[in-house]
Design the sequence.
């Protein structure tokens, strides 16, 4: 099957802003090669192709940096407290453990391993408090 961009894409190119064309260049992998070539030829007509390509590269670099920084941010302290309390409230309940691991799985899919680690450590710490509290009569004798 040979896919080609819709003709409306080509018809609207002259009326698109430089910013919209820059967005296409910044995300070349999301567009068909014919569409990218059309955008490049439109920028050549406008006379600012080199400028736009440099800006597109810079935009892509900034977006990559923002995504990388978001992946390395720790879990918010309030969520850590809630997850800790969930572990401390019922301990090693399989239902709660499943919910915590589903939440961790969402971050795992997004490749945010720091948040996954924070979720698991917070729940485990809470569960340890629950175990210690419920076995205090044994170790206090």
Sequence:
């Amino acid at each position: 099957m040979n896919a080609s961009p819709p003709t409306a894409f080509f018809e609207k190119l002259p009326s698109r802003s430089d910013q919209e064309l820059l967005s296409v260049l910044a995300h070349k992998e999301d567009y068909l090669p014919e569409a990218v070539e059309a955008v490049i030829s439109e920028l050549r007509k406008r006379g600012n192709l080199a400028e736009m390509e440099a800006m597109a590269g810079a935009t892509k670099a900034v977006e990559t940096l923002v995504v990388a920084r978001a992946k390395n941010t720790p879990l918010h302290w309030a969520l850590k407290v809630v997850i800790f309390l969930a572990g401390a409230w019922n301990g090693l309940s399989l239902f709660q453990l499943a919910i915590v691991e589903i939440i961790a799985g969402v971050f795992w899919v997004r490749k945010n391993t720091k948040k996954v680690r924070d979720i698991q450590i917070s729940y485990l710490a809470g569960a340890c408090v629950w175990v210690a509290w419920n076995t205090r009569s044994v170790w206090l004798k």
User: Anything to note?
Assistant: The two ends are 76 Å apart (CA to CA). The first helix runs from residue 7 to 12. The CA atoms of residues 51 and 106 lie 39 Å apart.
